[in-house]
Design a protein that fits this description.
This protein has about 300 residues and is α+β, with helices and mostly antiparallel strands. The chain has two domains: about 5-145, Jelly Rolls, CATH 2.60.120; about 150-265. The chain has nine helices and six strands; from the N terminus they run ααβββββαβαααααα. Strands 1, 2, 3, 4, 5 and 6 form a six-stranded antiparallel β-sheet that branches. The longest helix has about 90 residues, at about 215-300. The chain is rod-shaped and about 130 Å long. The two termini are about 40 Å apart. The relative contact order is 0.09.
């Protein structure tokens, strides 16, 4: 009997590849079509998971929101891909959002049919586990890239223009170059006036006579008065920088803890599914062995 078009399309999906034609026909009969347009929401995070979806045509974006409420794309699914299997496996809520990015067609497999299919076909369940592991690895990579943020960049983004100016001035003031300028100015200014005041025969007119140095003291006091608030502003900005760094470190630790918990949950779900598969395979093997022994006993009995 020729295989149907729906069964042929299913054979191209990794989850169903390698299944016999009659099994593909059975699965094709269980799948119901769902048309999608660009921008359509297939499901939202934390919604109950009641079905698995196969992308027949079009494309679907799987995404979540990070701690800053920004959308983070986990993957873009092309035709032949499937999604929504995690919530169907454990009966929990959806762990991500799914949005159509191009017009196309999905095939929906309900949870009851999903569970019955994988119990009857353990090889497909093993394929599902491989895909889960690959997606978990991909998600971990994306999260690790999103977790770490540069404290210097965050600090600069929060600075006002006046803060930026004050920070630039205090950075210059705290440099060796500024110290050399002040030292050179002091030596030249005081040295010239000391020599001019002490040796009038040179004919150098002292513009700030020794030992009072009235003009020098006035200018140095004005510089100190102006720089003191700037130095305090710089210290406050540095303290704010340290606070931002501490906040980011706390955020990183918190996200890392959540990611470890999520990873352990994924591993636990995969382990439970493997145990179910092994139990199912043991039952099938025992049943086959019992069927093989029965004809043999019948033959011995007739002898």
């Amino acid at each position: 009997m020729p295989i149907s078009t729906d069964a042929v399309r299913l054979s191209a999906v990794p989850l169903f590849s390698g299944l016999p034609a009659e099994v593909l026909e059975q699965v094709a009969a269980l799948l119901r079509p769902v048309s999608i347009r660009a921008g359509d929401v297939v499901f939202l995070e934390r919604e109950p998971g009641d079905a698995l979806y196969v992308v027949e045509s079009g494309s679907v974006r799987i995404w979540v929101r990070d701690a800053d409420a920004n959308e983070v794309t986990l993957t873009e699914l092309a035709p032949g891909s499937f999604f929504g299997e995690m919530a169907v496996l454990d009966g929990g809520p959806r762990s991500a959002n799914a949005t159509a990015t191009a017009e196309g067609m999905l095939r929906c497999l309900r949870r009851q049919d999903f569970e019955r299919f994988f119990v009857e076909h353990p090889s497909a369940a093993l394929t599902l586990l491989r895909n889960l592991s690959a997606r978990l690895r991909q998600t971990n990579q994306i999260v690790s890239q999103q977790v770490t943020r540069n404290a210097n960049v965050v600090h600069e983004q929060r600075l006002s223009r006046l803060d930026t100016l004050a920070l630039a001035i205090t950075n210059k003031v705290g440099s060796v170059g500024f110290f050399l300028i002040i030292a050179t100015w002091t030596i030249v200014w005081t040295g010239y006036n000391i020599i001019a005041s002490s040796l009038p025969g040179l004919g150098w007119p002292p513009f700030d006579p020794f030992p009072a140095f009235v003009a020098y003291l006035l200018m140095s006091n004005v510089i100190q008065i102006l720089l003191m608030p700037l130095i305090m502003v710089g210290q406050n900005l540095q303290a704010r920088h340290a606070e931002i760094r501490a906040e980011l470190e706390f955020e990183i630790n918190e996200r890392a803890e959540k990611e470890v918990v999520a990873t352990l949950r994924h591993l636990e779900r995969n382990t439970q599914l493997l145990v179910q598969l092994m139990h199912h395979l043991d039952c099938r093997v025992a049943r086959v062995e019992a069927e093989d022994r029965a004809p043999a006993a019948h033959v011995h009995g007739t002898d």
